[in-house]
Amino acid sequence: MQLRYAFRLYPDAGQRAALARAFGCARVVFNDAVRAREDARRDGQPFPTAGQLSKKLITEAKRTTERSWLGDVSAVVLQQSLRDAEAAYRNFFASLKGIRKGPKAGAPRFKSRKDTRQSVRFTANARWSITSGGRLNLPKIGQVKVKWSRTLPATPTSVTVIQDAAGRFFASFVIDTDPATDRARMPETDRTIGIDLGLTTFAVLSDGTKIDSPRFLRRAEKKLEKAQRELSRKQKGSKNRDKARLKVARAHAEVADARREFHHQLSTRLISENQGIAVEDLSVKGLARTKLAKSVHDAGWAQFLSMLEYKAERYGRTLVTIGRFTPTSQTCSTCGSVDGPKPLGVREWTCAACGTVHDRDHNAARNIKTAAGLAVSACGAPVRPGAIPAQREETGSHGFPTEPRAA
Fold it and tell me: Fewest C-beta in 10 Å: which of 29, 137, 262, 278?
């Protein structure tokens, strides 16, 4: 299984300039590849192959006056940029044919220096290394200071240097993990749990545990509003506007980082304590079009469920997702009778059949666990056949960060 381990970089002024050149050269090669493909499509010609593009856009371009500065950066960076363009077109065509899973991929677009994310990738043949002093040695950039928050479990196969909207630099290492070692870290247990996700309470477990929603965005709204108001008052194109934009980006980055850290810690805890986990298939996109949109995005359900999915596969746990139309809030978890739909304002209700008083979310979590087949009936038999281990698709080259900082 491939995972990414991200660490903060602190390049000096000269290294920042070298990284800016690398970002720019990679961006130019990517745009040239997209332009060559679009010109061929417009003229009714076959698409140029990767080898033809490499020869024309890199090898021959370096000999021209207009593109001679491509030689200032590592050739591997330029080759990887071409590979990214090829992958973008493959994903686009696979999406058109219905082969690619997930949301439809659009046609590759030109990159801009004003994009919120800039990145370059160094593979093993770029001869990058980690020095004995703990610095990241990159070709034609130098030895960059790294803030190591933990030890890499294996030798990385590649490293991607990323600059985000807040101006921060990160090194994202791709690691091939050992399944046997990962599963040994978390011994098997006989515990199972059902999880009901919500907004007021982030999660309610089938054992009655309630996990409050941190509401990171709501708590930071005043700070974000002030920063955005200051940005709107700055003259476009001025240096003060650039400073104000960075201030807004950093404020948003703090919120996103805090939310991601919360999701990582909670998902790791649930995976380590439970052999089987049941969740509900939520329509996050649909809920994001309602009046609850801001709260839904603030909760970050999709990110949390994605973490549960890949950690379940990594550590040999079982994750079961039940259908979103299962009446978990309408069914009595004690006797199984369906009591009908209830408004969101009803947080407690009494079963008309058996008289049991239910907490709405706790009852739903218990029903989720039962519907997933992780609970047993009164006679001790499983409610339905055993769950199927969760599967995770191939690790993407642009996901960041995938692995928790403190797992």
Answer: 137
The encoded tokens of residue 252 equal 């948003």
51 residue type, one letter: G
Instruction: Please give the Cα distance from 32 to 26 (Å, whole number).
Output: 10
DSSP 57: I
pLDDT of amino acid 227? 96
Whether 196 is catalytic? yes
- Hey, what amino acid is at 198? G
The C-alpha atoms of residue 339 and residue 354 are separated, in whole angstroms, by 11
DSSP state of 107: P
Query: CA end-to-end span of the chain, whole Å?
Result: 16
How much is the pTM?
0.85
Who contacts 64 (Cβ-Cβ below 8 Å, separation ≥6)? none
Token pair in block for residue 272:
């380590």
pLDDT (tens digit, 9 = 90+) per residue, 46-102? 999 999 999 999 999 999 999 999 999 999 999 999 999 999 999 999 999 989 887
Active-site pick, 196, 298, 313, 403: 196
- Give me the residue label for tokens 């990594």: 314
Q: Which of 32, 298, 313, 361 is catalytic?
A: 361
What CA–CA distance (Å, rounded) separates 367 from 371? Answer: 6
Q: Which of 129, 73, 97, 295 is nearest to 201 (CA)?
A: 295
212 a catalytic residue = no
Residue with token string 């978390």 = 186
